[in-house]
Amino acid sequence: MSAVLASEAETPPRLLQKVGSLLLLPSVIVLLAWMIIPLVMTLWFSIQYYNLIDPTTTGFAGLDNYRYLVTDPDFWVSLQNTLVLVASVLVVTVGLGTLLAVVFNEPFPGRNVARVLAISPFFVMPTVSALVWKNLMMHPIYGVFGALARGVGIQPVDWFAEYPLSSVIAIVSWEWLPFALLILLTAVQSLDHEQREAARMDGAGVWAQFFFITLPHLSRAISVVVMIETIFLLTVFAEIFVTTSGGPGNATTNLAFLIYARALLQYDVGGASAGGVVAIVLANVVAFFLVRSIARRLEV
Amino acid sequence: MRATPLQRLLVTIAGWLVALLLFFPIAWAVLTSFKSERDATTPGLLFSPTLDSYQEVFARADYFHFALNSIVISVGGTVLALVFAIPAAYAMAFHPTERTRSTLLWMLSTKMLPPVGVLVPIYLLFRTAGLLDTKSGLVMIYALMNLPIIVWMLFTFYKEVPNEILEAGRMDGARTWSEVWFLLLPLTMPGVASTGLLSLILCWNEAFWSLNLTSAGAAPLTAFIASFSSPEGLFFAKLSAASTMAVAPILVFGWFSQRQLVQGLTFGAVK
Fold this sequence. Notes:
The complex is a heterodimer. By secondary structure, chain A is an all-alpha fold. Chain A has helices at 2-9, 13-46, 64-70, 73-105, 111-119, 126-137, 144-151, 159-162, 164-189, 193-201, 206-233, 238-243, 255-265, 269-297. Chain A has a domain at 65-125 and 178-297: MetI-like (MetI-like fold). Chain A has 14 helices and no strands. In chain A, helix 2 (13-46) runs antiparallel to helix 14 (269-297), helix 6 (126-137) packs across helix 9 (164-189) and helix 11 runs antiparallel to helix 14. Chain A is flat and about 75 Å long. Chain A starts with a helix and ends with a helix. Residues 1-10 of chain A have low confidence and may be disordered. By secondary structure, chain B is mainly α. Chain B folds into two domains: 5-33; 56-265, Orthogonal Bundle (MetI-like fold). The mean pLDDT of chain B is 82. The interface between A and B is large, with 114 and 101 residues.
């Protein structure tokens, strides 16, 4: 009896590893399938003529879909819009998020309530935020901004007509700022008070403390924010779908919206798939650099 | 000792100003939802509150149908993902091999696969399998979509569990399953809870797959609200009422769970 127990207690490491990989296997298999099957299909469709409502368009297309894509000015604009959107939102949310995290770390009356209010946008679904911003805030005639502008005697701005991409960036930043704030605030809270106290004693001003102690401490948290946000920002869709439908012209068409339009509005599966392949390549290029730099910062 | 009264005052003003500015659009939508359509076109604070818009939204669309879909899909997707993720995270945290690190990073990189890149194949596969506009189809998609992040979060929680506790359990003869069930799950319940919360929120608000893969039968609240964006006429009060109804459940849920959520969101980046 005791011998049995002893042998169980000293389970050989080999066996433990087997159990470990057995438990890991289901997740790996479904993720692999989730990645490979659509990827192979996308690659396949991208070299076919394939239209969902026109059965006469069939056959091997070679690289025609890609040729069509790269000669389409909309494509290059959408690529640029995608990158501008990701970069701008990252700069705004990480920059403001860091400052706000420092503010919300200081004790002030009603801080908990204020914090709950400030992170609320994170819980709002993108379709709703887009609709509310478009109609209630930024509408030139009925929106709050327009009313404010008229109140001080300025001509109201038709945001989505005059600054379409910036407007989308503003909405997406509003959605993601709370996320950045939450993570960075947690990081600031874990900052060693004695270290700051010591720096203060040595005569470090508020800004010196921020740049030489807080900011370096935040680098790991910032990389997490950048990583998670990039994943979601590369594929922003609902905000554009609801507010501008990619327009005016192609001003707010990002890669995600371009592919959607090709596939489900023009039914051009071949062309859409070529766009999809580009999106996947782009994501992988970004992922390669991102994951690598994050992995260095995180203890795995 | 820490800050002068002036600094304290400035921080208070800054904090509240930012909080109110960020919250303003939400508050304004809720306010507008109680206006009549005529009052809603003029941004004023003086109006006689009415529930007309809510009545009309209820008359126009079956809110509870959409809301129920949202609940079923979000909970289903989260539970399914957890079923896959808990064993995987456990295995990687407690029985690490030389490949664990790259497996974890690979999983995260599948999350970088843009949904649009694979929209067409998934759409066609779903059409073939009869999964278009079904709840089970979206449950599968959402589980897969969130699996990498869930595994990663659980992994960071499991990593925090001191190995000695498990060693002690093994000495007492606990097998792997009972180890997970009686030792780890209670120990990491807060972690599993906050991971689940984040997954619920992400599922509830997801608006790419739900807009493209559902039409009427399985459409969740994201589709319900998108149907109010049609340019057939701007009915601001009704739009606001519908928005409030779509957001209120998850917003209140988020308020109550924010402490839990914060714990999980840091991905082990904060020690």
